[in-house]
Write a structure and sequence with these properties.
This protein has about 80 residues and is mainly α. Helices cover about 75% and strands about 0% of the residues. The longest helix has 25 residues.
Length: about 80
């Protein structure tokens, strides 16, 4: 289950970075420092979500959850 949790974390991070890159035009009016703060905040939120999902994968039902999570997030 730990491998699925690590893969999930990596996938969430990958998606968040891609979305931040895609939204560069919308944040173009921000200074470089402000954009960096937005990026950092976004990454922290995504890491928090991934940590909670990984925690759920450490439960007794992990053997049932892991395949579903892997399929859902294409990991």
């Amino acid at each position: 289950m730990e491998a699925v949790a690590r893969a999930l974390h990596a996938r969430f991070e990958e998606v968040s970075r891609a979305e931040l890159h895609r939204l560069r035009r919308k944040t173009s009016s921000l200074s470089a420092a402000q954009r960096e703060q937005v990026d950092d905040l976004t990454v922290e939120v995504v890491r928090g979500i991934a940590a909670r999902a990984a925690e759920a994968l450490r439960t007794q039902d992990a053997s049932r959850l892991a395949p579903l999570v892997a399929q859902l997030f294409r990991i």
